[in-house]
Design a protein that fits this description.
The chain has about 700 residues and is an alpha/beta fold. It has 18 helices and 23 strands. GO terms for molecular function: hydrolase activity.
């Protein structure tokens, strides 16, 4: 009775929405879009997860072309020859509204029919005509078609001819639909199938993953949970797919570079944050596409991305499925383009290697973080063109597979040539490879010579003898000879070749691939290395001090109970031209409070003892020269988290190594960890030192250093 009354109340609440402007989404394809979640032996279990629950702002276009409150199963009156269950539609719609509560009314238009081939969706067929008819009816009712969600292909895996023809038929279907809907830029989010009905699944998946049409994105269902029939997604998998589709659609909508990651987490903030309201409508997306198009004919600053899986990107990957999270540092930017597999320039978006490294599911790599960092450092740079060329895989790619004349080498040269012919100059190659060469001792021993020869041949064939190359010293290995390969990378001594060290960056659970956060950090490190190759070096410190431990070294002075810093910087902590700070991206910059602002990512940093210490030692001994502070403290950490081999220990060692490159001597480490009673004044939380106490502590540390360590 309660459910019945609820439905009536919901209908009354929603009725006015049917006359409002709607954000319309077409749902088309076959059974996994129609929905078989919870269906067993032709019976639906009736379970509707919370993510798929009714919402007053979500409507459904019924079979009779009227708008009604949306509820599972969405396709109950469309895919009528079978029992339908939960599909991805409601999860998608609710996730969209989570991203942007001010979006308004979402109108879903179910059109999927189970067991259908792509050939049954051609222009003039019943399914195609029904799709166009329902789309037109939806738009006439008031609203705009924002996108089509498409999940189909299982039926095309049975016959080899169907599988071979799939890519061409799919492209033609998308092009015809856009034409007949008079929406040439209609966003389409397709799903790469997770399960086959026949043996030719990889041919169909390759066609889906390699499809490269403007404003067509692909999410990969591989790895999502299947029902007992090994064909249809379970209810939980359909919920997850809906969220993936929402995340993918959200990425097509323009937003400021530094916007928060949607409804997930900020990688720098480490916890969930409210997403800011969407600033643009679908019309803005069209305008953005028009704004970007001319960029493809402008002179570009071109960067080649080559190597294996950690350059291709596995950030956010678990069991062959990408979580879809794109951190703000990797967000789209109108000034960043990507050379697609078909050698055309398109707006760049994660995953960058989706149509290049096609035998696996790719995730976040360092490329977008690098490009955004380069532009942040020099806004006058213009258009950045990224040329993805990295190929990973189950066994990865060895350096011997990149020799002149190999497929990978020829593809790299061909894509580089095509990029430059389109207008622009190749500025550098970013190279991250070597994990696969750690398995065999002979490969590891030969690595340095092969790498040098590869770099020399590439420069010669690109007719760029001074091409900047930034290589990455590997962080992980597939074999036991990692140190031999790392030594070769770190000792390589060719002009205009720099090396950044990935050791200490966070790894995924497979202990081989970098996490999303680590890929962001690596991109920023690569940007700093590039700047060092093209920009005169900034001053380097003479006397270096490490700041390590937990929150009172990181600094919480002035941070209130609601986790906001009051912004007060006492005179003892003022900037000084002789005090530098090593950033998270391993660049020396003028030091200012809070020193740990880009290191202690999981809390708001405030005043710590570092600046007071540095100003105090310089006031009493100018022979120290330029002081360099290396923030490494992380709040809430136990001493057991600082043992050799841990992430914190590895990060500390990596930052120390970076700090001494280019000169300077480590004079000491300041360590505050364990939270023993200091007798100093505490903040109201009775844990953290106040700003004045941090100033006093800095002076105490300076006294201790000057009395115990001769300069």
């Amino acid at each position: 009775m309660f459910a019945f009354l609820s439905l009536i109340l919901l209908a009354h609440a929603i009725s006015p929405a049917s006359s409002q402007e709607k954000n319309i989404y077409l749902l088309a394809g076959q059974s996994n879009m129609s929905g078989r979640g919870g269906v067993t032996n032709g019976t639906w279990d009736g379970f509707v997860p919370p993510e798929c629950g009714p919402n007053p702002s979500v409507l459904r276009l019924a079979a009779n072309l009227t708008w009604v409150p949306a509820a599972e199963p969405l396709h109950k009156d469309i895919d009528v020859n079978v029992t339908t269950g939960v599909g991805p539609g409601m999860s998608f719609a609710n996730a969209l509204l989570d991203y942007d509560p001010g979006l308004g009314v979402v109108g879903l238009v179910p059109c999927a029919i189970g067991g259908t081939k792509i050939s049954q969706w051609v222009r003039g067929s019943f399914l195609y005509d029904q799709l166009v008819r329902r789309a037109d009816a939806a738009a006439r009712g008031g609203g705009k078609i924002q996108a089509m969600l498409w999940y189909q292909g299982e039926s095309d895996t049975v016959d080899e001819e169907d599988a071979e023809s799939y890519k061409g038929r799919l492209e033609k279907f998308f092009e015809d639909l856009r034409s007949d809907l008079q929406s040439p830029s209609l966003p389409i989010i397709q799903v790469a199938i997770a399960s086959p009905q026949g043996p030719f699944i990889e041919k169909v998946r390759e066609a889906q993953l390699r499809l490269d049409l403007a404003n067509v994105k692909c999410v990969d269902a591989k790895g999502l949970e299947l029902g007992p029939d090994h064909l249809h997604l379970t209810t939980s998998a359909e919920v997850q797919l809906g969220k993936m589709l929402a995340g993918s659609f959200h990425q097509t909508r323009p937003r400021p570079l530094k916007n928060n990651a949607p409804s997930s987490y900020s990688l720098r903030g480490g916890k969930r944050k409210e997403r800011t309201k969407a600033m643009f409508t679908f019309l803005s997306l069209i305008l953005l596409a028009q704004a970007i198009s001319p960029a493809s004919s402008h002179g570009k600053n071109i960067f080649l991305l080559a190597g294996q899986s950690n350059m291709s990107g596995r950030g956010g990957m678990t069991n062959g499925t990408w979580d879809g999270v794109v951190p703000p540092e990797c967000g789209p930017n109108p000034s960043i383009l990507r050379l697609a597999a078909n050698l055309t320039w398109v707006p760049a978006a994660e995953p960058l290697h989706r149509d290049i490294d096609v035998n696996v599911t790719v995730g976040v790599g360092p490329g977008m973080s690098f490009a955004n960092s380069v532009l942040a450092n020099d806004s006058s740079l213009g258009v950045v063109g990224l040329v993805p060329c990295a190929v990973g895989g189950t066994r990865g790619t060895k350096i011997s597979q990149w020799v002149r004349g190999s497929f990978l080498y020829d593809q790299l040269v061909r894509r580089a040539g095509a990029a430059a012919r389109g207008g622009g100059k190749i500025q550098a190659m970013l190279w991250y490879q070597g994990e696969s060469d750690t398995v065999d001792e002979e490969d590891a021993e030969s690595y340095k010579g092969r790498l040098e020869k590869f770099f020399e041949d590439l420069r010669s064939d690109l007719q760029s003898p001074s091409l900047s190359i930034i290589q990455v010293a590997i962080a992980s290995a597939q074999g036991s000879f990692i140190e031999k390969v790392r030594e070769a990378q770190l000792r390589l001594d060719l002009a205009n070749v720099k090396c950044v060290d990935a050791k200490g960056l966070e790894l995924e659970p497979d202990h081989l691939h970098l996490t999303t956060l680590a890929e962001v950090q690596l991109g920023e490190m690569l940007a700093v290395a590039h700047a060092q190759l093209v920009i005169p070096a900034s001053p380097h410190p003479n006397s270096i001090f490490l700041l390590a431990g937990q929150s009172n070294m990181s600094g919480r002075g002035g941070v209130t109970m609601n986790n906001t810093w009051d912004g007060f910087v006492p005179p003892e902590c003022r900037p000084n031209r002789n005090i530098l700070r090593l950033t998270a991206a391993l660049a020396w910059v003028p030091a200012t409070e809070p020193l740990h602002k880009d290191l202690n990512a999981y809390a708001t940093a405030g005043v710590g003892p570092g600046m007071s210490f540095a100003n105090s030692v310089l006031a009493r001994d100018s022979r120290l020269g330029v002081v360099g502070l290396v923030p490494c403290a992380v709040g809430g950490t136990a001493i057991g988290q600082w043992v050799r081999g841990s992430f914190l220990y590895g990060q500390l060692v990596r930052r120390v190594s970076a700090a001494v490159q280019g000169g300077g001597k480590i004079k000491g480490m300041l360590w505050y960890q364990g939270e023993s009673d200091t007798g100093l004044q505490l903040e109201p939380d009775y844990v953290h030192l106040t700003t004045q106490a941090e100033v006093q502590l800095g002076k105490m540390l300076a006294d201790s250093f000057l009395h115990t360590e001769p300069v």
